[in-house]
TrEMBL record:
<keyword id="KW-0472">Membrane</keyword>
<protein>
    <submittedName>
        <fullName>DUF4199 domain-containing protein</fullName>
    </submittedName>
</protein>
<feature type="transmembrane region" description="Helical">
    <location>
        <begin position="147"/>
        <end position="165"/>
    </location>
</feature>
<dbReference type="Pfam" id="PF13858">
    <property type="entry name" value="DUF4199"/>
</dbReference>
<feature type="transmembrane region" description="Helical">
    <location>
        <begin position="36"/>
        <end position="56"/>
    </location>
</feature>
<keyword id="KW-1133">Transmembrane helix</keyword>
<feature type="transmembrane region" description="Helical">
    <location>
        <begin position="76"/>
        <end position="96"/>
    </location>
</feature>
<feature type="transmembrane region" description="Helical">
    <location>
        <begin position="12"/>
        <end position="30"/>
    </location>
</feature>
<keyword id="KW-0812">Transmembrane</keyword>
<dbReference type="InterPro" id="IPR025250">
    <property type="entry name" value="DUF4199"/>
</dbReference>
Length: 170
């Protein structure tokens, strides 16, 4: 089993660490690093999955890759990225509560600035519910959101990359 997961462990861990570095750097550069960190996640996640599958295929599996193997290696890779990133962001926000308050205030401000547009699209009731949920937001919510937005594109990219790399020993 370790044969299947060694490259996933390496590149999933690397992707998670890079995501944390990105969050830290972006927090230093601008008040709300969450949106740009998600964009960075859309870059690092497929790159990590690509490298994990490529290394598995070339160095652990004699140049062959079934779709199931690709999905397994990709799953472990993007889950590691999501878990490391989410846990790290949560720890950062717990250690630096001022950063969390700045992020929360930024999200509240964006809601207020876009109030008319949001109400016209989804209605007053939805706007009020969203505003209330942002005001009650905790640091774990930001971390979980980041993790989810590593998993969703991770699954999509794993499917695509597994199909591209698929080569059976027939």
């Amino acid at each position: 089993m370790n044969k299947y997961l060694s490259s996933a462990y390496q590149f999933g861990t690397l992707g998670g660490i890079l995501s944390l570095i990105s969050f830290g750097f972006l927090a230093w550069v601008q008040p709300d690093p969450t949106n740009l960190n998600l964009i960075f996640g859309y870059i690092i996640t497929p790159v990590s999955i690509f490298l994990a599958l490529k290394f598995f295929k070339d160095y652990s599996n004699n140049g062959y890759l079934s779709f199931a193997e690709g999905m397994s290696v990709g799953f472990v890779t993007y889950m590691l990225i999501a878990i490391i990133s989410a846990l790290g962001i949560w720890i950062i926000l717990v250690l630096y509560p001022d950063l969390f308050e700045v992020i929360k205030a930024s999200k509240i401000q964006v809601m207020e600035q876009s109030k008319d547009t949001i109400i016209s699209q989804v209605g007053e009731e939805s706007f009020q519910a969203t505003q209330k949920s942002i005001q009650e937001m905790a640091s774990i919510d930001i971390a979980i959101n980041d993790g989810i937005w590593k998993i969703v594109p991770g699954l999509f990219f794993t499917i695509i990359i597994s199909i591209i790399f698929r080569k059976n020993p027939n």
